[in-house]
């Protein structure tokens, strides 16, 4: 399936930009070779992902969205620093992270490289990789791709950023974000189900993340309500740590952090909807 989607005119992700990635870069700013910014043991994810020993995080360069506030913009938008790795080398990195004690392999922004990453996962598993694969995504993923990942991915750490199309267009350059992400999230939940833990660590399932933005409470309310009524019982992670970065510095609506009133409003909403999961503090 991936060969057909990427081919000479890439349609791997919902951008469907048609790039011949063997010759030039697509809207995700990458071609057909794997590029990573770094890999390491990371302790800052949700408790069932980081655990005590940390998550084996691999940061991929590029992104199929263009968020003007991206905190990883040097990697996602400016595509540096970068290191080219082969499929084999990526498999070796996964094995190295497992040997260093990582609870899982955490693929950060993998969507535009997924056709290559699955090959690395296969090689790594044949060489003894047993820890779960975490797919850490904006959820701007095609439903058909998510369904194909059933055998490769164990845990989804997946955003629901926007419900409002105008906002997603203005802040991330994609108007159909909700239409795409809602279908992808439903497919993730259908294939992996509720979060299952072993010794307090995620073994399989879905964690839905939502980053609260300043001056966007209506978007947050709609996002949390959609999660409640469409992914009933899913684990939710609501994040308040937004700070203006990249093109959001001095931006009229998102040029500041979330304030206390916004924080309290969202906390009340979480209680009212009886959502289960995590709140990353203001
Ligand atoms: S993965 Fe990249 S090249 Fe392929 S359709 Fe998406 S943006 Fe275009």
Q: Mind telling me the CATH superfamily name?
A: Aldolase class I
Radius of gyration: 18 Å
- Shape by Cα distribution: globular
CATH topology: TIM Barrel
What is the succession of H and E elements?
A: HEHEHEHEHEHEHHEEHEHE
What is the domain total for the residues?
1
Low-confidence stretches: none
Ions, cofactors and other ligands present here are: iron/sulfur cluster
The largest sheet is: 10 strands, mixed
State the helical fraction. 25-40%
Head-to-tail CA distance between termini: 42 Å
What is the count of β-strands? 10
What is the CATH architecture term?
Alpha-Beta Barrel
Helix segment tally: 10
Which class in CATH terms? Alpha Beta
Structure classification: alpha/beta
Our estimate of the beta-strand percent is: 15-25%
Name the average pLDDT: 97
How does this model look, in words?
With 282 residues, this protein is of the alpha/beta class. The protein has one domain (35-280): Aldolase class I (TIM Barrel, Alpha-Beta Barrel), CATH 3.20.20. It contains ten helices and ten strands. Strands 1, 2, 3, 4, 5, 6, 7, 8, 9 and 10 form a ten-stranded mixed β-sheet that branches. Helix 4 (87-99) crosses helix 5. The longest helix is centred in the middle third of the chain and has 16 residues, at 177-192. The termini are far apart. The relative contact order is 0.12. Bound molecules: iron/sulfur cluster. The site of iron/sulfur cluster (SF4) has 14 residues, from loops.
